[in-house]
Amino acid sequence: MIFITFEGPEGSGKTTQIDKLQKYLNKTGFTTIKTREPGGSPIAEKIRELLLDPANKEMAAATELLLYLASRAQHVRDKILPALKKGKVVLCDRFNDSTLAYQGYARGFSKEIIEKFNNFAAGGLKPDLTIYLDLDVKLGLKRAHKRAGKKDRLELEKKAFHEKVRKGYLAIAKKEPGRIKIIDGLASREEITDKIAVFVDRKLKNAGKNSRTC
Ligand SMILES: Nc1ncnc2c1ncn2[C@@H]1O[C@H](COP(=O)(O)OP(=O)(O)OP(=O)(O)O)[C@@H](O)[C@H]1O
Ligand SMILES: [Mg+2]
User: Fold this and answer.
1) What is the pLDDT of residues 138-149, one digit of tens each?
2) Which of 6, 15, 98, 186 maximizes ligand 1 atoms within 8 Å of its Cβ, making it the mutation to test the pocket?
3) pTM score of the predicted model
4) What secondary structure does DSSP assign to the chain, as a single string?
5) For domain 2-35+83-209, which architecture applies?
């Protein structure tokens, strides 16, 4: 039915807010599924392990990009499209914009090429709504490390890398203000959930009027 993605730097509150939004939507009577990238379906989760394993320090940036895309190609076909076809609201933790921010803006691959690759991997599927949680990089990393002891391969990147990711996200959001809603990740969990609910309610109302065809 509708496809909502959550984006933001490490520790910005994506997983926390997806959980809260799912509870809210289920209470309002929508059928939802929660999923994530990389991963989200059995084969894609195997690719996730490769991508995030801190032991894979030698992974080339091109390999990394292609593995993210491979994970997405599988995940979209295994899980996201079937759920949308059944009329579910799909909530996805990271999607195309992560690839553009991390592999494009931060690693330096051509943004035009990434946009084409993203489109290919996702079979043309684009989110109906994207919530971008913006947060100071240092604070986000601190939050993420407090939550989980072991850092994954991407979290181990230098602060300068994460700054580029954040700048990238802000540039992407500026280009697509209709789809991407920027929310300040410094606010309380509850305030953020309330703000997200306003955007989602609006989107669901419109979706009711023009049913998605996919
Ligand atoms: N608004 C908030 N204020 C303070 N702490 C928060 C807020 N939202 C989330 N947190 C806490 O910050 C930590 C990181 O949150 P969360 O795991 O939701 O972020 P994330 O964006 O999913 O991180 P990652 O990029 O590592 O997956 C958690 O311990 C969470 O409880
Ligand atoms: Mg998370």
Assistant:
1) 999 999 988 877
2) 15
3) 0.95
4) -EEEEEE-STTSSHHHHHHHHHHHHHHTT--EEEEESS-SSHHHHHHHHHHH-TT-TT--HHHHHHHHHHHHHHHIIIIIHHHHHTTPEEEEES-HHHHIIIIIIIT---HHHHHHHHHHHTTT---SEEEEEE--HHHHHHHHHHH-SS--TTTTS-HHHHHHHHHHHHHHHHH-TTTEEEEETTS-HHHHHHHHHHHHHHHHHHHHHS----
5) 3-Layer(aba) Sandwich (3.40)
